[in-house]
């Protein structure tokens, strides 16, 4: 669980750079259930529901139903990117599902790019004008779309952390 991982200090936070996340209370299971989940699901003939059917309540996808978000998605698209809005995480999850991209890899590469941006390895010029800072909800959603469409800087990020770190250079590999 998100809360359990956080209490053990193993939840990814800001590209795995820290174990402290100020917005943890906004992304734990209770908030997911309160704000998104409409039904818990299980596999056929299984008595244990392990998946959530959720409803997006914010634009631009208000009213859309999707499966998730799961622990890994919350960790990588959420705390790893400094995002404490379960609605924003759910929106990014929905976009990943629609575009056929993995939420874990996507959150990992965006978190890495956010650290590179904050450390000055890349700038707005490199990111198509997106202020790619930890906690920037709009930037997260924009980059998920750009990765899925292989557009601009998203095309670079779609190659994954190893290749992006090699392309950025300047010692950015240390944070990959």
Task: Tell me what the structure shows.
- The chain is mainly α and 176 residues long.
- Helix content is 44%, strand content 7%.
- It has helices at residues 2-8, 29-35, 71-78, 86-99, 103-118, 137-149, 153-157, 161-168; strands at residues 37-41, 51-55, 65-67.
- A three-stranded antiparallel β-sheet has the order 1-2-3.
- Helix 3 packs across helix 4 (86-99), helix 3 runs parallel beside helix 5 and helix 4 (86-99) runs parallel beside helix 6 (137-149).
- The longest helix has 16 residues, at 103-118.
- It is globular, with a radius of gyration of 16 Å.
- The mean pLDDT is 93.
Which key terms come to mind for this protein?
176 residues, mainly alpha, three-stranded antiparallel beta sheet
Provide a concise account of the structure shown:
The chain has 176 residues and is mainly α. The protein has helices spanning 2-8, 29-35, 71-78, 86-99, 103-118, 137-149, 153-157, 161-168; strands at 37-41, 51-55, 65-67.
